[in-house]
């Protein structure tokens, strides 16, 4: 029997709740579809930080590098550990150290779910750059606390980084509707985004079967809301993609729906699967977090591991569940456990 080794990092707040709801579904899918899952949990989190002075052990990345995939809940508890410490101590180093340069995020309305828009038919795949750009971490502060204080945070766009994410966007567009939207801001950012546009043009010549359109980020933000049905594959820099994918989550009914895969398509490092949302301290501990984004991310993980049948079954069960209780999900009146049980109950067998 094939065994997949998964590093599970529940993290903080509702991260632990949505992972608790997802693991039984993964176990059930494995049992029914005839493969084994070795799930090893890592308690790296803000609690871990308060005990050990760091978010993960010094060799944390090396501990997870050998796994087949990583499943993560959410990281951050700003009342106890500053966000720039917790996120730069765990989530961001995983993305960067494993060079998971693609962050693929899916936005569509599931059956029965009431989104905030009139548009009901949209299916957007947002390809977000995940290792550089506005998140390069380059910069510093001087003259702290004085009137002369300076803070510098420099975006870094490399040809290698820009080309590989745009290429992945073109490849996905080729596999889907043949249409790519490239997100820019070259009217204001005259170095980095003009460069981004130039590389887009260079690749467009190579992918002549893909129709590429450039949109400025501000106009794209409006388009996500006004005409989401006009979009298919969207490729964006790290920060633009971060913001757009919270809008994407919002139009699909809320943060509890948006799933993501952090990938390196050209190496054998483990990919990481996680919901787009954070640890939601405002609702943590109340049993009302929507686990669908995480369960969907776990389905993406199963597909990535080659378990297509199990992945399709989990996705089907999610759709059946939302068709049944979707309208109640909007006001959080369906609890995390109820959604988990419904998905478990409707999980199809091979
Ligand atoms: P958030 O995504 O945690 O929450 C934003 C809003 O969406 C909140 O009102 C929350 O209740 C709601 N929400 C989020 N997920 C939900 C779910 N599954 N079901 C129902 N409602 C849900 O964003 P935030 O409040 O800006 O951040 C909280 C913490 O999480 C911070 O520490 C932040 O840095 C961190 N964060 C982590 C990740 C990650 O680990 N990938 C992502 C985003 C934010
Ligand atoms: C996300 C999150 C992270 C990001 C934060 C928590 C650093 O918002 O995964 O979208 O900006 O990438
Ligand atoms: Mn985000």
Mean pLDDT: 97
Global morphology = globular
CATH T-level fold name of the largest domain? Isopropylmalate Dehydrogenase
Structural class: alpha/beta
- For the record, give the distance between the C-alpha atoms at the N and C termini, rounded to a whole number: 16 Å
Q: β content, as a range?
A: 15-25%
The helical percent reads 40-55%
Gyration radius from CA atoms, angstroms: 20 Å
Biggest sheet, open or closed, and with what strands and sense? Answer: 10 strands, mixed
Q: Catalogue the unreliable spans.
A: none
The CATH superfamily of the largest domain is known as Isopropylmalate Dehydrogenase
For the secondary structure, the number of strands is: 12
Bound ligands: nicotinamide-adenine-dinucleotide, 3-isopropylmalic acid, manganese (II) ion
Give me the side-by-side strand order of the main sheet.
2-1-3-12-11-4-5-10-8-9
CATH class of the largest domain: Alpha Beta
What is the N-to-C order of secondary-structure elements (H for helix, E for strand)? EHEHHEHHEEEEHEHEHEHEEHHH
CATH architecture of the largest domain: 3-Layer(aba) Sandwich
- The total count of helices amounts to 12
Structure at a glance:
It is built from 12 helices and 12 strands.
Provide keyphrases for this structure.
single chain, 350 residues, alpha/beta, Isopropylmalate Dehydrogenase, 2 domains, ten-stranded mixed sheet, two-stranded antiparallel sheet, 12 helices, 43% helix, binds nicotinamide-adenine-dinucleotide, binds 3-isopropylmalic acid, binds manganese (II) ion
